[in-house]
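REQUEST ID: PR-0412
SUBMITTED BY: lab tech R.K.
PRIORITY: routine
TASK: structure prediction, single protein chain
INPUT:
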Amino acid sequence: MYPQLLLENQLCFRLYTAARLVTAGYTPYFKPFGITYPQYLVLMVLWEKDHRIISEITESLQLETNTVTPLLKRMEAQGLVVRQQSQADSRHRIVSLTPEGRRLQEQMKEIPNCLARQTVEAGITVDELKTLVPLLDKFIAAMSHASTTE
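STATUS: complete
OUTPUT:
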């Protein structure tokens, strides 16, 4: 057996598991609002700056258009966003929050704190969490660079 092929030696498996567990941790908080974690990410992008073209959203989320477009269609059907053709460039569609989409920001503002609190209660210190974020940012940047140079 090759040690580099043992599951316990895989960073990628740890990252995959962590991402899956974080997403699952958010699910009970999103249920009352009828949204999913990816929809929450889209909302956060739009709460930061409304009226974005789809390519800005995909770039912010580091996702492909064919992943984001179905999310936006569902969110439009839920009355959270509207998609309109750009007046400046007919090739682009602008995504904007509806009043309901804007209201969700106030209603969901404590969700990140709830998940952070659960993490701290499970034994991770606030300092460890503060260390983790820049380290993950550095890792993501390195992986992004590696994927563009191949």
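NOTES: The first strand starts at residue 52 and ends at 53.
REVIEWED BY: pending
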